[in-house]
Amino acid sequence: MSEVNSQMLELGTKAPKFSLTDVISGETYNLKTFRGNKALLVIFMCNHCPYVKLIKESLVEYATDYMPKGVGIVAISSNDVENYPEDSPQKMIEDAEEFGYPFPYLYDETQEVAKAYKAACTPDLFLFDEEHKLVYRGQFDDARPGNDIEPTGKDLREATDKVLAGEPVPEDQKPSIGCNIKWKEGNEPDYFG
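User: That's the sequence. What structure does it adopt?
Assistant: Structure tokens below.
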């Protein structure tokens, strides 16, 4: 397990385009799918990462609380499934069913969407306003495997509440931390310096 921080994409960045298939429904999702939402959360995650496993139930609670308020949510897995078969689309379906994900779980086979977002770790969270401008990129909360802090989504919830209230989100944001995205050999992005 290689622990990395999120890259902290510049605030105000327009949401990079994507067109990916939901492993559960088979439907294709893109930014237009979320037109009209008050906010959009794009979360890069996977099935096997301990950092993601820790927050899955709390993430579903967040989604259950905020989707009815107009927050669009999409989860994306970009891991190399050849070397990490536990993150395959079939396993993604099983994971989504086990935890009852109320949001689509998309598979980024080429890893191009992860690169467009400068995603680095799982979980890596990107919250956009209704104009799809980035207002928050950072941690879900302070919970980490082994630190005995119960996940609540405090940081993400505070940012989402600000967006929904039409207030600016504070720019002092803690990066997310988690397992590195499992890049295909020769496909590692150049934004790690």
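The first strand starts at residue 3 and ends at 5.
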